[in-house]
Amino acid sequence: MTETPKTALTIAGSDSGGGAGIQADLRTFFACGVHGLTALTAVTVQNSVGVHGFTEIPADVVAAQIETVAGDMGVNAAKTGMLATAEIIATVAATVDAVGIGRGRRVPFVVDPVAASMHGDPLLREEALEAIRTELLPRATVVTPNLDEVRLLTGISVTEETVQREAAEALLAFGPQWVLVKGGHLAGSTRCVDLLSDGTHVVELEGRRYDTPHTHGGGDTLASAVTAHLAKGLGVPDAVSVGKRFIERCVAESYPLGQGVGPVSPFWRLAPDSPAPTD
Ligand SMILES: Nc1ncnc2c1ncn2[C@@H]1O[C@H](COP(=O)(O)OP(=O)(O)OP(=O)(O)O)[C@@H](O)[C@H]1O
Ligand SMILES: Cc1ncc(CO)c(N)n1
């Protein structure tokens, strides 16, 4: 018999194109050596060109998925992706509380406050933003907004790296333990810097910026890699640092697919000479 791997739960939407959402989360969990559990929140009709619509899953079914795997298999770390509506967000908040997931609890909780696809198509109903602020951010061990999400949540436009700190402070005021302000959308630089802060420790995670349009699923893949490494027992700064090295390589290995934006790729992890960044 093989030893049981750690488990990571993703609470997220499906991307029919397979590059983002729950599909990206599962392949990242696999690539990082943890067993992936899922609570599906919405089904998007999506390809490399954009999101053509979505249907959400009833909130009680989202809750039941979380409860049923947590009660039987146990969850070592969890993350959120697309949550679609204020009702689903409130239900997820109550359910993670009930099963011991979240800031200050046994199980670390990564909140990726997904608001729109990289094409600008909405993945969250407008009225649900306030629910992210009040229901999810206070429960987050780490929140991982991109720059558009930073602007929506705080009103701060990050146009240069120096403003990432101010944005992190503004987000910390909503109550998460750590904030990771991702810098993928800061154009015009050869480096790609994400800023991690808990208000006391501020860490600049610098990576190379690759000149590729194919970064679909990058945010989901980073948040999932962080979640996987939290599940394995790393602390937040180490899990984020490993996650950043993981996503950097996934962007380097991204590929074209379809007429639009191709996905980042964790396939390099399958090569026998490619140890995980923590190995
Ligand atoms: N061209 C690039 N080269 C290297 N790393 C990148 C590049 N673009 C983004 N990244 C990294 O990928 C991760 C995701 O960042 P980004 O800000 O793009 O998130 P996102 O907008 O949520 O992603 P998504 O494309 O899934 O919507 C970050 O660690 C960022 O630094
Ligand atoms: C389902 C889904 N979740 C998240 C994203 C953001 O990458 C996306 N495009 N689709």
TrEMBL record:
One of its GO terms (cellular component) is cytosol. The keyword ATP-binding applies. Keywords: ATP-binding, Kinase, Nucleotide-binding, Thiamine biosynthesis, Transferase. Catalyzes the phosphorylation of hydroxymethylpyrimidine phosphate (HMP-P) to HMP-PP, and of HMP to HMP-P. It holds the Pfam family Phos_pyr_kin. This is Bifunctional hydroxymethylpyrimidine kinase/phosphomethylpyrimidine kinase. GO terms for molecular function: ATP binding; hydroxymethylpyrimidine kinase activity; phosphomethylpyrimidine kinase activity. It comes from the Bacteria. It catalyses: 4-amino-5-hydroxymethyl-2-methylpyrimidine + ATP = 4-amino-2-methyl-5-(phosphooxymethyl)pyrimidine + ADP + H(+); 4-amino-2-methyl-5-(phosphooxymethyl)pyrimidine + ATP = 4-amino-2-methyl-5-(diphosphooxymethyl)pyrimidine + ADP. Residues 15-264 form the Pyridoxamine kinase/Phosphomethylpyrimidine kinase domain. The lineage of its organism: Bacteria, Bacillati, Actinomycetota, Actinomycetes, Pseudonocardiales.
